[in-house]
Amino acid sequence: MLNVLSGVRIVEQGTFITGPCAGMMLADLGADVIKVESQGNGDPYRSFKAGFYSAHFQAYNRNKRAIGLDLKDAGERAIFHQLIAEADVYIQNFRPGAAQRIGADYETLSAVNPKLVYCSISGFGPDGPYAQRPVYDSVAQAVSGFLSVAIDPEQPRFIGPALADAITGIYAALGISAALVERGRTGRGKRIDVSMLEAMMHFAVEPFMGYFALGEEPSGVDRPRLAQAFIVRCRDGKLFAFHLSSLDKFWDALVAAIDTPELATDPRFDQRLKRIDNYEALNTALNAVFATRDRDAWVQRFAGFDVPYAPINSIPDVVSDPQARHLDMIVPVADRIEGAERTVRPAFAFDGERASAVRAAPVVDQHGAAIRAALARSPGVWPERSSASASTAEAAEAAA
Predict the structure, then answer these.
(1) pLDDT digits (tens, 9 = 90+) for 16-62
(2) Is the pTM of this model over 0.85?
(3) Residues 42, 173 within the same domain
(4) Is the Cα dihedral 265, 271, 276, 277 positive or negative?
(5) Phi/psi of residue 350, each to 5°?
């Protein structure tokens, strides 16, 4: 497991994806993240499908410890403030105003710990006309303009993964990392606000610049047309993708790979700008060619040509992909009580070192007894991460 952020202490009070994703990104880098959940069932994402340990919850809560606290109770709030007193970072993704009602607002927690980096994640920001509106991933994709440049307007569909949720969490982790660097210089904490609207607008900065620089309204078909990116269906129904970009050498290599010199001399396609203007006609012609062979045959054929290409892999395809296997992208889940035995490792390598395992997402209140016992023995001292792998029964025994 990576330890670049070893010694950084984080209290995360996140639900669903944005807050937990921010905490996971930092935990993946070695930060000690204690996830504070409500008593009982905890983060609602635990029961996204059934039970209290959904695959969705596992995805964003690995490498963390968990404690259940009722912050409406004065005694439980005191335990929470003990954690905050020794923390470097606090993360929450409540709707604006909710943190204040449970005594977890910036003013309260920065008084407990002036060096605290406080990160508040929301849908639309802390104030403004939309601040109190409920927000989920699809809404954020839509209102930010991202969806308008990511879908085919003739066949509009949401994109599969929760992109806005995860991207916002990654932006939050980036902001937290920057604030920690600044605190190293100044010794002062800072409040960070990041919303899904802001994150997705920044993520889509390129089409915004096209609008401001050229006065054109971008659409979902602009990027593939200008980049000369194509998705074609092969004889066996499987999909194949390639991206020709602005270099004529890739077009020339494509023509050679599919053995269609007539396309090179076709007056609609013999220059790059013509291929952009006639994108749909070229797409139809290419699909007709690729329909003559199965995808595996095309993959073998393209291996001998300098074209940026790839089969559109399913998730099982990626797990067995030679390059993914070479990079050891799939690693074991350590300390698991239930759930998946394998997962995708963090994307980083530091001095050639990559994570070779991740720690399982915690079950409800898994480390609560051990954390409470450590706080009771040494008030104001952060509970050691060495208890992270203790089971609930072991933690209770230690507390006794």
Answers:
(1) 999 999 999 999 999 999 999 998 889 999 999 878 999 999 999 99
(2) yes
(3) yes
(4) negative
(5) -120, 120
